[in-house]
Structures are given as structure tokens and as C-alpha cells.
Write a structure and sequence with these properties.
heterodimer; A: 577 residues; alpha/beta; ABC transporter transmembrane region fold; Rossmann fold; 2 domains; four-stranded antiparallel sheet; elongated; B: ABC transporter transmembrane region fold; 3 domains; six-stranded mixed sheet; 14 strands
Chain lengths: 577, 579
């Protein structure tokens, strides 16, 4: 938590003033019982009407000042808490964009999303509450005890017994219930799991006629959940009655010992009333403190999760890199004995890969799931650094380029067709910020997307909803291909990005890319033999190793793995066609 | 459904707990009465302590004993009330949730297809909890709040009518302030939650797809867009946060005014001999807690509204009609002979979009039928109809000489083995999953089925073998292995007929070969329908159904269809288009 507090910088005034004003308000609240005691002892005893009026004016004044102080405090703390979370969110967002793929893999982007949203909100709530209440509640407790002591030391000892006792009860109940509530959560997760399962798997459940068993199983889980909840409820239901009893026993004690002091003339009747009032104030303050502690614990847990992100340093940077000039005649992409191992993995994902891809060539990459196809193409724009060997782009080592330059050379079509909320035009401009209408149309044409875009009433200004949910899978894929083509990159990488296209469209797309992109080197990653059969060069990957390089014909004769793949998908005569 | 009707339905669920609820209410009355009696006793106590030499110890002793008894009774009553409320709440949740889940098993597959899992999940899980928390807890709070108010007024009246009237007159001020602030903050909260939603969706896009952001060097533009929304959120966040936090101090201030009013009037009454100092103390105590229930009640009302909205959503779900029950005296199909005929059927999911029309097929036992065609042509619809997940609108399907409408769904489905592309496995052990259709299967049977499905070797290599638990996301086994488990699951059932949906994207090469072998073994001697993507499968089929736009446009064997030179031939050729 401490580390994050630097985000309160710039709100120093608010951070100090908010709790101060809150304490001021509390002070006025603590004076009220004394004023009432005055009314009883002086005003009523002496029948002094003017005194009573004066005291009432004092009480109203105290109320007004209290209100003003409180509002000031709330305003300052709101300002500081929001400022805190805004700055924190901004830095977190900026930090995430410096992380490389390696860190993104380890942390996982969904976690990052929850951290930047709900964890920061949680921390903000924590800061706000702390500024407002963390000093106030203890202050009232301590203040009330101190006030009691100024009235009468003997009776005030009762406070020294009651306060720790109430605190202890609150602490014990919280300590007992926290683990049970954790169990409640696990049990609820199980209920969610079963519900989701039975929705997604409805066909299978019915196909096997298992509805009755599923109902029974759910009944058991549901019953267990209820039992744990009732158990937790039993303990937490004790909180209010138990603290109420302790407080009132305290009041009984005050009346008893107070009466003796009054008898001996040490204190007055009004002062006994004041002592009783202080006792009730303490209980309220302690209960508020308990709630506060729960909120702060949550905020602290969030702070830990946030710091985890900030503590993750980017493993690759382009610091000190200057724009590079390409070497004449060098291959567009060259892998020299490249080996790559993912962070935290024992086995290399790629080992000893060597190949060259010239300008204008089409390179097919084929192999089963998890054989390293995507890993290989991710090394080209330097999303990861190689563990061994070297990747050269236009004859220059990938590490020598600034990120902007190397990623500008590469147009990437990722495996999952992700589009962003906004118009089709907005999405196309991702590839080139100042792309002209012609450039966009041209890219859409090559990607076989122009027909359906033109078919929409709004054409390029058609709004794509979040995640592209208003388009079909095939349409999304074609748009992501077009997006990569807008900037006419030197290298185009299609990472299994035509899987949702039917065979005819897939073929037309490959044809158009070949014909209309002069000198572009195209990498096609696919699991379909038919998609890469025509490539100038095919790389066959199996378990991270390069099992063969060559054309379809060559590989059929020399590469066993390739033959196996082809024959599992096509018939003998088709393979040889 | 109107709120009133929803309320009626809710009462139906609560009715079994009538006794508990009545006890709850009685306990609530006791708790409130005793809580309110406490200040009076304290006041009596104070009255025995007048000044030096003037303390009525005996009376004080009696009062204090009474006070202790009352406090203990209050605590016990309050505890019991809390316990009962909890129990009834959780029981009602359990009842509704159980019924909702049962209903999930009974709704037509059409409903499931049309709704996102998240939607049903939030109804069965979140809405049910919120409804019962809000309703029952809210109800007890409302009830105790109201009787506290009336009780306080009653007790105050018994001490002094004049001062009570002052308090009652000042009450609306407090209410007015609370509702004024509430209406203001509502708008600001709405604005804030809209901005927050905008922020969340932006974060989901830009952080969730951070890899793409970096691939297109979009970082700077992303930061700019994020910065704008972030700043807007800050501005409206401060407002919402501030205004929402002024409710408490403001009502506390009004409370203070009431307190002062009681103080003045009370002090003068005491001087005038109208009441004692102790009674004034009790009065001040009342004034202090009198406005609290008002604040609580205004909170409870929104909670109750929310609870009713949740209840409505649950009831909406429970009201979706369940599937038509099997016809009375439905025929139980013991062992199908493998013959099947489709007679002139028509079907569509939505009346305005016709899908299948006038389709007829005859299948002899043991035949292999491959269904091919472009996406959306109705291939999976055929599966839905054969398994009777949906009912045909015209014509009929006959299995083993009986129309499927006249047999029980369960017995029909048991005769079909189904392997879909979406490999659904239950969270549980591998063993449980293979035995899904036959929970009493012995381990030998399970192993045998796994061997036939070529799954045994990989299962053996898993750390706990057949007792390995498959994680919810199936992260510990590959897609291909999942497929093998699904095949083993069907193998164990030994059905006469099969429905298979081939995977579109291939799995790793070695498993792929195994899956195909397993498929081949599974189909041996069984009538099989295959939604086919692989040409080798298609070529070996006894009958190919070529579907387009909901019609079977061509049917026959591979060579015959090629010779026709029609749509099929074209589709076949397109795979080898020269680029």
C-alpha cells in the first residue's frame, strides 16, 4: 500500500486537511454531552433560563461548524481519492504498454483488465475511507475515554474495561467468520460452475439422459452451500447482541459507581448523564471501525495485486536503438539457428531453426497444434527475443531496430480475429494512422472484404460493436487481414487467420495477395495442407523442430511428417495433384 | 409481470416458512420494545442520583437489576431474530435455485441456444442471492424500522406530549434533506457509472488486446484515448463521491437540531416541574436514535425495488415454457435396429426464415451418411432434429419403424452416440467423464472403452491415470485428447446409431491420426451420420447429402456426384484452386 501512496502527491493539502477536518467534527461531537451536562447541572439546578438558551445556541453552533467541517473533509477526501485513482490508472495503463509479450503471457491480459479496473476502484475506496474515517473513529473512542477521565477517574476505569472487551468481541467474530466466508465463496463458485456446465453442455447432458443425476448433484452442492451460510450466519448474528450487552453493562456500572461518587459530591447528576452518553458514542465508533478494517483489508489486497504489475519490468526494450537501413540483397527475413524457450518452461518451443525468406516469396508454415508455428512468426517483429541464434530482417538483427520501425515493416494478422469498437474505417487506420480512402479500399479488396463492406448501408462508416460481435467469423477475419494490408507492409504474417473462410474465398484471398502486393513477403501459418500447398517454400514444424523446408512436391518425397499431415487431410490422388 | 404479481409469486416461495416468519416478526417486536425501554430505565436510574447525600440506592439497585434483565432479553431476542432471518433467507434461496436449475434441464434446447450462458448464470446465481438478501433482510429492516418509529413516538408520548409533537413536526425536515440529496446523487451516480462502463470497455479492448496494440505500434494513440476517458471519470467521480458522502453529515446535522430542540423544551419542562432529569435523558436518547430508522428505511426501499427486479428476472426464466412432455404412454425404444427414415420434413428456427424443406432420406442399418455443404446450410440442424433437440414442423422421422415423436426422448437419445465438435467434458475425473452415460460402469469396462478410443495410452501417462481431474477449462489436456475422451464416452454406451461432427481445424498430427482411427472403429457396424469436413471421410460414405440453403440439393456416392458435375463437384474442385 505504501508504495502506491505516492499517487497522493499533488493532493498533499487534501490528504492532510481531510482527516483534520474530520477530527475537528468529532471534537465537536464529543463536546455535546458536556453541554447537556451543563444544562442539567447549571441550567436546571439553578433554574437559569438564559443559561439554557445560551447552551442551546452553543449546540446549534457546534452542529453548524461540525457540518461545515464534515463537508470540507468529504470534499477534500473525494478529490484526493479520485485524483489518486486517476493518476494510478494512468500510470498503470502506460506501464502495461511497456510490457513485452513475455510479461503479458505470464500475467495474462484478463488479470490486467481486472487489476486496472476493479482493483484500482477498491484501492480508491480504501483511500477515501481511510482519509475520512481512519482517524475519526479511533479519535472518538480515545476522546470519549479521555473526556470520561476528566470527569471522574474512578468511574472512567469502567471505560478501560469495556472498550477492550468490545474490541475483542468484534475481533473474535471477524476472525471466526472470515475463513467461513471464504468457504462460502468456494461453494458458490461450485454452484456457478455447475450452472454454466449444464448450460453449455445441455446437449450432451440430454443425449446421455443425465438430467435427473445432474439435478441431484446440484441439490447436494446447493444444500452444502446453504449449510455453510447458515453456519457463518450463526456467528456473525452474535455481533450486535454481544456488543450491545457489553455496552449496557458498562452503563449499569457507570450508574452504580457514579451514584456513589455523586453521593459523596465528587461529580454531579449531569456528569453521570454525560458519561452514559460517551459510552454509547464509543460503541458506534467501534462498529464503524470494524467495517473500516474490512474495507482497508480489501484495499490492501488490491494494492498488493497492483504492485505486482508495477514490479514486473519489461524484459525487452528498444532503448538506444536507432533507425536502420536495409542491406542490399539480403533476404527479407532470415533465421540463423534460432532457439526459443518460453519463460518458465523447461523445453524449448523452437530449436535450431534456420531458413531464409526473400522479397516477394510466400512461405507456408504447417504443423499440429502446439508445434511452434505461432511462436516462429512472433519472433519476426520481435515480440520475443530469441534464446539462441539470430533473427535478421533485411540483413539487420531484429534487436537493432526501434520497435516502431520493425513493427512498421510487419503486418500482423493474429490468430484471433480481434476488431475494436468504432467504425470499419477507424479499425483500418490501426495499420496506418493517415491512411487514405484509396488505400483502405485497396486493402479491403485484396482481403476479399470489399463486397460485404460495400453491401452495408453505412459502408466504411459501419459501426463495429465491441469484439466485432455484429460480424460473422469469416467477415472479422477478412477485416483483420485488410487492416494489416492498409500500410502495405514489407512482410505480411497470417497466423492461421483464414480458418473461418470457406475454401473458395481462402483461395481467392491467397491469389489476390500474391498478385496485388508487389514484393511483399507473405507468411501463411495454417493447419490446412490445401492452404499452403502452393507456397514458394513450406516449413514443416513438429514439436519445435524444423522437419523439412521446400516446395510441396519436394516435401512429399523427402518429409515423412509432411506426407502424414497431407494424407490425413487429403486423399492420395489429391495430394499428388 | 407487474410488481404486485411478482410479490404474489414471492409470497408463494415464502409460505412454507410461515411459522418462522411469524416468530421472526414477534421477536422483532420484542427486540424493539426492549431496546426502547432501555433509555427509560436508564432515565429512572439517573433520577435516583440527584446530588450529594441524595442517592436512592435501593431504587437504583432495583432499576439496575431490571436494566440487566431487559438488556439480556433484548440480546437474546435479537440474536434469535437474526438466526431465523438468515435461515429463512438461505432456505428460500436454496429452494428457488434448485427449482431454477431443474428448469434449466427442462427448457427446450432452442432456449439454451438463444441465450448466453452468462445470462442464465447471473439469474440463477446472482439474482437469486440478491433477491432473497434484499427481500428478507430488507423486509425485517423495514419492519423493525417502522415499529421503532411508532414505538419511539409511543414512549415519548408517554413521557411528554408537548415535546413529542415537536419531534414529530421536525421529522419531515430530515426526510426532505435525505430525499433531496438522494435524488441529486442518483443522477451523478448514473453519470459516473456510464463513464465507468466506458472506461471498462476501453480497458477490456486495449489492455485485453495489448498484444495487438503493440503489433500495430498503437501504444501512444491508446494512451491518448485512455487519458481522455480517465480525466472525464475523475471529474464526474469527484462529484458523485462527494455528494454521496454528504448524506450522513447532513442528516446528522438535522438530528442535532432535533436534539437541541428537545434539550431546550425539555429543560424548561423540567424547570417547570413537568418531568424529571432522568426523563429528559431518556428523551434525549430517543431524539438521538429517532431519525436513524428514517435513513435506513430510505435505503431499504431502493433495496426492495432492486430485489423485486431480480425476482422478476428469475421468474421470467422459470416461466419460459418447458419442453412438451413425452406423449402419454410413449414407447420406450430398447435397442434400435439401425434403420432410419426421414419423411418429407420441414423445419425452421424462426418462422420468417425457412430452413429445411421437404427433406426425405432412407437409411439402412450400418450405413454411413456424410452431410456436406457450406457453413449455415443446415448441417447441424439435421443433428438437432435426429436427436429431437428440436421437433420438426412437418413430416416425421422414423427410427426402427417407430415415429420418434411417439417414443420417450431419453430412450431415443440413448440409442444415439453423439460426438460434437465442441468437446464438452464435466469438471471431474477422467473416469467419471468416460462413465458419464453409464455411471455404474466398472473400471474394466471404462478402460476397455478408452482402449477402443485410443485414449488409454495418454490417460495412463497422466499423473493420476483415470483419476486425473480435468480442470474446468480443460487446461491440462489438449483439444485432441478431449475429443478422444468424448469418443470413449460413446464407446462405453455401445449405441446402434452415431452422430459425429468432425473438427474443422486439425489437432496435432499424431492425435489426429488416433482420432480418425477411433472414429473409424466407432463407426464399424453402426448407422452413422457425419457432418464431414474431411474428404477421406466423405469418400468412404455410403451416401453423401449435399446441403445448400436448407435443401439437400444432391445426394449419392462420391464418384456419382463428381460425375454429375454439379455443386458438389464444384466444392470439391475449389479446394485445389490454383493460386
Amino acid at each position: 500500500m505504501k508504495k502506491l501512496l505516492r499517487y497522493l502527491k499533488g493532493y498533499g493539502k487534501e490528504t492532510v486537511l481531510a482527516p483534520l477536518f474530520k477530527m475537528l467534527e468529532a471534537t465537536f461531537e464529543l463536546i455535546v454531552p458536556l453541554v447537556v451536562a451543563g444544562i442539567v447541572d447549571v441550567g436546571i439546578q439553578n433554574r437559569d433560563q438564559a443559561y439554557i438558551w445560551r447552551m442551546c445556541v452553543v449546540m446549534v453552533l457546534l452542529g453548524v461548524i461540525g457540518l461545515v467541517c464534515s463537508l470540507t473533509a468529504q470534499y477534500f477526501s473525494a478529490k484526493a481519492a479520485m485524483g489518486f485513482s486517476t493518476a494510478l490508472r494512468r500510470d498503470m495503463f502506460a506501464h502495461i504498454s511497456t510490457l513485452s509479450y513475455r510479461e503479458l503471457d505470464t500475467l495474462g491480459t484478463p488479470t490486467l483488465v481486472t487489476r486496472i479496473t476493479s482493483d484500482i476502484n477498491q484501492a480508491q475506496t480504501g483511500v477515501n475511507l481511510v482519509l475520512r474515517l481512519f482517524l475519526r473513529s479511533p479519535f472518538i473512542v480515545v476522546g470519549a475515554v479521555v473526556m470520561a477521565f476528566t470527569i471522574n477517574v474512578r468511574v472512567a476505569v469502567i471505560f478501560l474495561i469495556a472498550v477492550p472487551l468490545i474490541s475483542l468481541v468484534i475481533y473474535l467474530i471477524m476472525k471466526l467468520t472470515v475463513p467461513i466466508y471464504r468457504k462460502v465463496q468456494t461453494s458458490l463458485d461450485k454452484i456457478s460452475l455447475m450452472t454454466r456446465e449444464n448450460h453449455v453442455g445441455a446437449r450432451v447432458v440430454r443425449a446421455f439422459g443425465r438430467q435427473a443425476e445432474e439435478n441431484q448433484e446440484f441439490g447436494e452442492v446447493n444444500d452444502k452451500y446453504t449449510k455453510i451460510q447458515v453456519a457463518a450466519g450463526k456467528i456473525s448474528a452474535l455481533l450486535n447482541p454481544a456488543t450491545y450487552v457489553i455496552m449496557n453493562l458498562g452503563i449499569v456500572a457507570i450508574l452504580w459507581y457514579g451514584s456513589q461518587e455523586v453521593y459523596h459530591g465528587v461529580i454531579t447528576q449531569g456528569e453521570v448523564v454525560a458519561l452514559v452518553n460517551y459510552m454509547s458514542q464509543i460503541l458506534l465508533a467501534l462498529l464503524a471501525l470494524a467495517n473500516l478494517i474490512v474495507a482497508v483489508t480489501k484495499a490492501a489486497a488490491s494494492a498488493i495485486r497492483l504492485n505486482e504489475v508495477f514490479d514486473t519490468r519489461p524484459s525487452l526494450t528498444d532503448e538506444g536503438a536507432v533507425p536502420q537501413k536495409e542491406r542490399q540483397g539480403a533476404p527479407r527475413v532470415e533465421f540463423k539457428d534460432v532457439t526459443f524457450t518460453y519463460a518458465g518452461s523447461q523445453e524449448p518451443a523452437l530449436s535450431h531453426i534456420t531458413f531464409e525468406a526473400m522479397a516477394g516469396e510466400t512461405i507456408g508454415i504447417i504443423g499440429g497444434t502446439g508445434c511452434g508455428k505461432s511462436t516462429l512468426v512472433n519472433l519476426i517483429p520481435r515480440f520475443y527475443d530469441v534464446t539462441g541464434g539470430e533473427v535478421l530482417i533485411d540483413g539487420v538483427a531484429a534487436q537493432s531496430y526501434p520497435f516502431g520501425q520493425i513493427r512498421g515493416k510487419v503486418g500482423m494478422v493474429p490468430q484471433h480475429a480481434v476488431l475494436f469498437k468504432g467504425t470499419i474505417r477507424d479499425n483500418m487506420k490501426w495499420g496506418k494512422e493517415d491512411a487514405s480512402e484509396e488505400e483502405i479500399i485497396r486493402a479491403l479488396t485484396i482481403a476479399q472484404a470489399i463486397d460485404f463492406v460495400e453491401g452495408k448501408p453505412e459502408k466504411l462508416d459501419t459501426i463495429i460493436s465491441q469484439g466485432g460481435s455484429n460480424l460473422s467469423g469469416g467477415q472479422r477475419q477478412r477485416l483483420t487481414i485488410a487492416r494489416a494490408l492498409v500500410g502495405m507492409p514489407e512482410i505480411l504474417i497470417m497466423d492461421d487467420s483464414a480458418s473461418a473462410l470457406d475454401f473458395a474465398t481462402d483461395a481467392a484471398l491467397r491469389h489476390a495477395v500474391k498478385e496485388q502486393t508487389d514484393g511483399m513477403t507473405v507468411f501463411i501459418v495454417s493447419q490446412r495442407a490445401a492452404s499452403i500447398k502452393q507456397a514458394d517454400k513450406i516449413l514443416v514444424l513438429d514439436d519445435g523442430e524444423l522437419k523439412g523446408v521446400g516446395t510441396h512436391k519436394e516435401l512429399l518425397e523427402t518429409c515423412e511428417v509432411y506426407r502424414e499431415i497431407c494424407l490425413s487431410q487429403l486423399s492420395e490422388q489429391e495430394v499428388n495433384r | 409481470m407487474k410488481n404486485k404479481d411478482t410479490m404474489k409469486r414471492v409470497l408463494k416461495y415464502i409460505r412454507p416458512y410461515k411459522m418462522q416468519i411469524i416468530s421472526m416478526l414477534i421477536l422483532a417486536v420484542i427486540t424493539v420494545a426492549f431496546t426502547l425501554y432501555t433509555p427509560i430505565l436508564i432515565g429512572k436510574g439517573v433520577d435516583t442520583i440527584i446530588g450529594p447525600g441524595e442517592v436512592w440506592t435501593e431504587t437504583l439497585c432495583k432499576v439496575l437489576m431490571q436494566l440487566i434483565v431487559v438488556v439480556l432479553l433484548t440480546a437474546v431476542a435479537q440474536w434469535l431474530m437474526n438466526l431465523l432471518t438468515n435461515k429463512v433467507t438461505y432456505k428460500v434461496v436454496q429452494d428457488i435455485r434448485g427449482q431454477a436449475f431443474k428448469h434449466l434441464q427442462e427448457v427446450p434446447v432452442a432456449y439454451i441456444d438463444a441465450n448466453q450462458p452468462g445470462d442464465i448464470l447471473s439469474r440463477i446465481v446472482t439474482d437469486v442471492s440478491q433477491f432473497s438478501d434484499g427481500l428478507l433482510m430488507g423486509f425485517t429492516q423495514l419492519f423493525t424500522g417502522v415499529i421503532t418509529i411508532f414505538g419511539t413516538i409511543g414512549f415519548m408520548m408517554s413521557i411528554s406530549v408537548k415535546i413529542s409533537l415537536l419531534v414529530i413536526v421536525l421529522t419531515p425536515v430530515s426526510l426532505f434533506v435525505a430525499s433531496f440529496i438522494a435524488s441529486r446523487t442518483f443522477r451523478m451516480f448514473q453519470e459516473q457509472s456510464e463513464k465507468r462502463a466506458e472506461m471498462t470497455s476501453l480497458v477490456e479492448e486495449l489492455v485485453g488486446n495489448q498484444k495487438i496494440v503493440q503489433a500495430f505500434s498503437y501504444e501512444e494513440r491508446a494512451k491518448e484515448r485512455f487519458g481522455e476517458v480517465n480525466e472525464e471519470l475523475r471529474v464526474c467521480g469527484i462529484k458523485a463521491l462527494f455528494f454521496s458522502s454528504i448524506t450522513n453529515p447532513s442528516t446528522r446535522f438535522v438530528n442535532g437540531l432535533v436534539y437541541t430542540g428537545v434539550g431546550i423544551l425539555g429543560a424548561f419542562t423540567v424547570i417547570g416541574g413537568g418531568m424529571s432529569v432522568g426523563q429528559l435523558t431518556s428523551f434525549l436518547n430517543y431524539a438521538n436514535q429517532y431519525t436513524k430508522p428514517f435513513n435506513e428505511i430510505s435505503g431499504v426501499v431502493t433495496e426492495l425495488e432492486n430485489a423485486l427486479a431480480c425476482a422478476k428476472r428469475i421468474f421470467d426464466f422459470m416461466d419460459t415454457p418447458a419442453i412438451e412432455p413425452d406423449v402419454p404412454g410413449a414407447f420406450v425404444l430398447e435397442k434400435a435396429d439401425g434403420s432410419l427414415s426421414v419423411e418429407d420434413i420441414s423445419f425452421s428456427y424462426r418462422p420468417e426464415v425457412p430452413l429445411l424443406h421437404d427433406i426425405s432420406i432412407r437409411v439402412k442399418p450400418g450405413q454411413r451418411i456424410a452431410i456436406v455443404g457450406p457453413t449455415g446450410c443446415g448441417k447441424t440442424t439435421m443433428i438437432n432434429l435426429l436427436m429431437r433437440f428440436y421437433d420438426v414442423q412437418k413430416g416425421q422421422i422414423i427410427v426402427s419403424g417407430h415415429p420418434i415423436r411417439e417414443m420417450t426422448r431419453d430412450s431415443l437419445r440413448r440409442n444415439f452416440g453423439m460426438v460434437l465438435q465442441e468437446t464438452w467434458l464435466k469438471a471431474g475425473t477422467i473416469r467419471e467423464n468416460i462413465a458419464y452415460g453409464k455411471p455404474d460402469a466398472s473400471l474394466e469396462e471404462i478402460v476397455e472403452a478408452a482402449k477402443q478410443a485410443h485414449a488409454h495410452s495418454f490417460i495412463k501417462r497422466m499423473p493420476k491415470g483415470y483419476d486425473t481431474v480435468i480442470a474446468e477449462d480443460g487446461g491440462n489436456i489438449s483439444q485432441g485428447q478431449k475429443q478422444l475422451l468424448c469418443i470413449a464416452r460413446v464407446m462405453l454406451m455401445k449405441p446402434t446409431m452415431l452422430i459425429l461432427d468432425e473438427a474443422t481445424s486439425s489437432i496435432d498430427t499424431r492425435t489426429e491420426v488416433k482420432v480418425q482411427k477411433a472414429f473409424a472403429e466407432l463407426m464399424e457396424g453402426r448407422t452413422s451420420f457425419i457432418v464431414a469436413h474431411r474428404l477421406s471421410t466423405i469418400q468412404e460414405a455410403d451416401l453423401i447429402l449435399v446441403m445448400k440453403d436448407g435443401n439437400i440439393i444432391e445426394q449419392g456416392k462420391h464418384e456419382e456426384l463428381l460425375a454429375q458435375g454439379g455443386f458438389y463437384a464444384n466444392l470439391y474442385e475449389s479446394q485445389f484452386a490454383v493460386s
